[in-house]
Structures are given as C-alpha cells and as structure tokens.
Specification:
This is NADH dehydrogenase [ubiquinone] 1 alpha subcomplex subunit 13. The chain is about 55% helix and about 5% strand. The protein is mostly helical. It starts with a helix and ends with a helix.
C-alpha cells in the first residue's frame, strides 16, 4: 500500500542541467565617447542657432507691440477721461432732475451751501467711488467695486 501512494522524486534531466551563465556580458556600444561628445556639441550648436533666430523674432515682435502701446496709450487715456467727465455730467443732470421738486436745492451743493468752501468754483472735485456710481445699477457698482482684489 505504501508503494501505490508514493510519488516519484523529481530528478535532474538526463545529461544534467545547463551550465549557469555567470560571466559578464558587456553592453553593445553604438558610439564611442568622442562621437557622443561631438554629437552633444553639434546638437547644442544647432539649438543655440535656433534660439538666436527665435529670440531675434521675439525681440522684433516685442518692439512692435511696445511701439503700438506707446502710440495707443494716450488715445485710450483721453477716451477714458472723456467718458469719466461724461458720466459726471450725467450724474449732475440726474441729480438736477431728481431734486427738481425740492425747494432751495442747487445742484452740487447741500441745500444751497457749498460742500467745499476753500475750493474755487471752477475746480473739479472728484467724487468718491460710491458717489460716482450713485445712479447706476447696484450690480454694475458691485462688479467694479472689488476689481482690484481680482487681479
């Protein structure tokens, strides 16, 4: 009974195992050291030439953009100032229309009394932010009020 259930022991193949390869196998060399240094220098020289061409083009475009900014900036400032003064005029007209029924109300004063006594009459007194948007929609005021925090 013991012989029927006994398994055969695993034995080496006939002729033995192959020899174990323990010798150093060097990597295949495609380029020598001098060839790799020469290739590096060649690629670096080509990249420097392409960088020079690209930088020259970038410099020309930057010069053109800066010139356009210098040409347009005074016009944009003048348009901004013009729109600012137009809005101040609209605010004064709206105040005059709104307070037409109030007795003794003069536009730009507080019941006939000038707000600033030491300033000549023809001096522009710039209103604060809330006074500038006094007749505007609140959403427009809120959209512009915290614009500095967004940038």
């Amino acid at each position: 009974m013991a012989s029927a259930s006994a398994k055969l022991q695993d034995m080496p193949p006939s002729g033995g195992y192959k020899p174990i390869n323990y010798k150093r196998v060097p990597a295949k060399t495609y380029f020598s050291g001098w060839t790799m240094i020469g290739g590096y220098l060649g690629i670096t020289a080509g990249a420097c030439f392409l960088f020079y061409l690209t930088d020259k083009l970038r410099h020309q475009e930057e010069l053109e953009r800066r010139s356009a900014n210098f040409a347009l900036y005074p016009m944009l400032l003048a348009e901004r100032d013009r729109e600012y003064l137009k809005q101040l005029r609209r605010n004064r007209d709206e105040e005059a229309k709104l307070m037409a029924n109030v007795e003794g109300w003069k536009v730009g004063t507080y019941y006939g009394e000038p707000i600033y006594n030491t300033v000549p009459e023809d001096t522009l007194i710039e209103p604060n932010y809330a006074d500038y948007f006094v007749h505007a929609n609140f959403k427009d005021f809120a959209k512009r009020a915290h614009l500095a925090y967004w940038s």
